[in-house]
Specification:
Chains A, B: Keywords: Aminotransferase, DNA-binding, Pyridoxal phosphate, Transcription, Transcription regulation, Transferase. Chains A, B: In the C-terminal section; belongs to the class-I pyridoxal-phosphate-dependent aminotransferase family. Chains A, B: GO terms for molecular function: DNA binding; DNA-binding transcription factor activity; pyridoxal phosphate binding; transaminase activity. The first copy, chain A, has three domains: 64 residues, Arc Repressor Mutant, subunit A, CATH 1.10.10; 139 residues, Aspartate Aminotransferase, domain 1; 239 residues, Type I PLP-dependent aspartate aminotransferase-like (Major domain) (Aspartate Aminotransferase, domain 2, 3-Layer(aba) Sandwich). In chain A, 41% of the residues lie in helices and 15% in strands. Chain A has 16 helices and 17 strands.
């Protein structure tokens, strides 16, 4: 974060907390410059940033004032009853959603990061350089667990999340999807019951379904995450084998589960001898820094399996993920051997270069700040253009916004209407096995904001208004 | 194949067939030159090649004569009773075997192709070139089924195997392993019985085990493949759901199953409504050209699933395979989505370049000829250096030789003895769920022959002799 962004963030927090009420005159540029030990220009930039966010307004010859804002949208209402579902009827809808991007399409539907950042260039260079001599390497030199150097680097990066691991605790996979698939098969057999967040990211639901598991959907709060209380009730009623959670930068809700709730979840799982599968793919994209500790880092039983990847922090096309399977390493290696064999080595080696040359942390820092900035923008755009009464999440990490519309709106119909304007969203229905969330949608806000993007959000708003008028 | 190789092959066939009996004087250089319309030099080169193979010997001023040879080794005795096994205890041994290569090791233990051929260079160039701009592409542009262009090219290549498919019948996977894993899950549920060849390649056995299947091992002839007769008996006794076979360039036996036997196998499977999973990874490395038609190409029911990859023809590090799942496409797409998501696009695009620019067919032709030549050499070396009574396979494709030693030899012990000389082989035990083949081994002969390789084979022979003497 640059100095002006830092200052803007401090001021914006004070406004949010009500320290500077609406209409009040804010400290002068000179006072702030002195108070924070920064230049006049920095304060001016910070105020301009806050103006962009419509938090403050400049009045000629009077200075800056806290702006009168639209009501902040409410939070989505995700919580309702626990239920056990045996099938997922949404596969056709998911398939529809993961179709390739059409020419000219403004696609909000994917959970893909921004891969246009210049800070990724050293990675592209490494890949190109290495592919001249490394690409065709056979498996002969490859450990089924993946590159030792990469596993060492991942263990180092994981110190930030509170974990003390070494290369021997980590297994490289073809993306986080394979890590999850391995994790589930490590702790469950087909027919077993797995508890999931509700809403749960659609690949997770399809994965459980594809592996023959039964899903138990647990009410999940858009700010504090999976309900430990509801889970406790569920564990008493159902023979749950594992709990699949994404506590940091949750997909689709964007929350960071508070540390105390993480601890309570772990305690509950340990009491019932249930495994936790922790999806940490968005972990390093948590806006609060340092990032929250993983549940894995708090566990001493080996019954928490961490799955992650470079797909959200770097690029999904690399297909490099990992699993830290706790006490299940032997099973995990067998699963890896039988599902795809060793992961391609070239991208692994390129990532090692990228990390050891210091580019990785710089890139992730930059993206974190970009995504946080974009979160504020998309929040404003949705507030401005979507109908009053729209509820939205408050992402604390990642680049996904969850939106709950008026209950008369079917977002699948909305998506069809938007397709005429070459815009696409992720429909809410695929985030639950039970076909809930028909009025919800998920929007990707990873890309650098442009007028075109802003207009696309406006067009979504117009389409929603039109659907409402038809009712 | 060059002219002299072609002539050498014709002459060698005549000798094998007994048209030129042992000790007989062969046609003069001049006569052959006229008969085949080739130069004197070509005939001389052909005779030199046959001398190298110890098929002919030159006698000063008299010309060339059919050489007196050592007895040709017998065929391995693979066939014995059908049996149903519920577990595979060999995982530790497999894990041992797939360890990374040690510095200085002469590794015969992998099923890896030769990737040092200069005909692969255009592929490396494409990869490097594409990675400058394509590598980080997100999934947004990617079809879960893989690159359309690549699927079109694969469909074209498959015409040689008798199949008429189009891109819509093919799904790209992370190597053949994922294709097999998807195929099995398309047609079976955990607990089902799958019939396999005996011996069966170890990854296949581990895969079935890992997916919770029960295996039924069917006696397999080292020349004609899986016993259709034994299979028929088995199908009457057991509720078999699928048959997993590698009819072309079989791993580990190297046979090409005769067309009539393929037809009989298909008929049998259709009568019993059992799916066939056809592993064709070595299909294009069949020495006879044109290659044998796949079982898939003879089927009209959609109950034969073809799995293949570029791992044996190009390089395993590419991690690009495919499945043509017959009538199971929808299930296969779901399995692909949940097991790893889309396959990395860069290697797919590089392979498209390599094929469309005409490099692929040239490369495969070259490797086929290299492997056939190496097959003759390794056969001679094993005949020369291994104890009398050793039995070996007669590979008709690929680069793997199956060797059956005196039954007092335990090849795991042999491997330990060889490890002191930094040589490794694949032990026979891992090729059967029932722990048979303790006296067998598999040797890779893909690499260009060198004195070092020849010496390594000699060292294996010496080690076997030593173990026999200890008995």
């Amino acid at each position: 974060m640059t100095r002006y962004q830092n200052l803007a963030s401090i001021l914006s927090q004070r406004i949010e907390q009500g320290l500077y009420p609406i209409g009040v005159r804010l400290p002068s540029i000179r006072v702030l410059s002195k108070e924070h030990g920064v230049s006049i220009t920095t304060v001016q930039q910070a105020y301009r940033e806050l103006e962009d966010q419509q938090l403050v307004e400049a009045r000629a010859k009077s200075g800056y004032f806290v702006a009168r804002r639209k009501m902040r949208p409410g939070l989505p209402d995700c919580c309702n009853t626990t239920q056990c579902s045996l099938t997922i009827p949404q596969w056709d809808r998911v398939l529809d959603m993961v179709n390739p991007v059409q020419p000219g399409e403004t696609a909000f539907r994917f959970a893909a990061p921004d891969i246009t950042a210049s800070s990724l260039k050293p990675l592209t260079r490494s890949l190109s350089h290495l592919s001249q001599r490394q690409y065709l390497r056979t498996f002969d030199d490859e450990d089924i667990r993946g590159s030792f150097e990469l596993r060492e680097q991942i263990a180092r990066l994981m110190i930030d999340s509170g974990s003390r691991m070494d290369a021997g605790n980590i297994l490289i996979t073809d993306g986080c999807r394979e890590a999850l698939s391995i994790a589930i098969r490590c702790v469950c057999a087909p027919g077993d019951v797995v508890a999931v967040e509700k809403p749960c990211f659609h690949a997770g639901l399809q994965l459980l379904h594809g592996l023959g598991m039964n899903m138990l959907e647990i009410p999940t709060d858009p700010v504090t995450g999976i309900s430990v209380e509801a889970l406790e009730l569920a564990l008493e009623q159902w023979p749950v084998k594992a709990i699949l959670v994404t506590p940091t930068g949750n997909n689709p809700l964007g929350y960071n589960m508070p540390i105390e709730r993480r601890k309570a979840l772990l305690r509950l799982a340990q009491e019932h001898d249930v495994a936790i599968i922790e999806d940490d793919a968005y972990g390093e994209l948590s806006y609060p820094y340092p990032r929250p500790a993983t549940i894995t880092s708090m566990d001493f039983t080996g019954n928490v399996l961490l799955c992650s990847s470079f797909s959200k922090t770097l690029a999904p096309g690399l297909r490099v993920g990992w699993i830290a399977p706790g006490s299940y390493m032997n099973r995990a290696i067998h699963m890896k051997y039988v599902s795809t064999g060793p992961t391609a080595s070239l991208p692994q080696l390129a990532i090692v270069d990228f990390i050891t040359q210091g580019h990785y942390l710089k890139h992730v820092r930059r993206m974190r700040s970009q995504y946080q900035h974009n979160r504020d923008l998309i929040t404003r755009w949705v507030t401005d253009y979507f109908p009053c009464g729209t509820r939205i999440s408050r992402p604390q990490g990642g680049f996904l916004l969850w939106v709950e519309l008026d209950h008369r709106i079917d977002t699948q119909r909305l998506n069809r209407a938007l397709s005429e304007q070459n815009i696409s969203i992720a429909i809410g229905a695929v985030f639950s096995a039970a076909g809930k969330y028909d009025s919800c949608l998920r929007i990707n806000f990873a890309r650098q904001p442009t007028t075109e993007l802003k207009n696309a959000v406006r067009q979504i708003g117009v389409a929603i208004h039109q659907l409402l008028e038809e009712k």
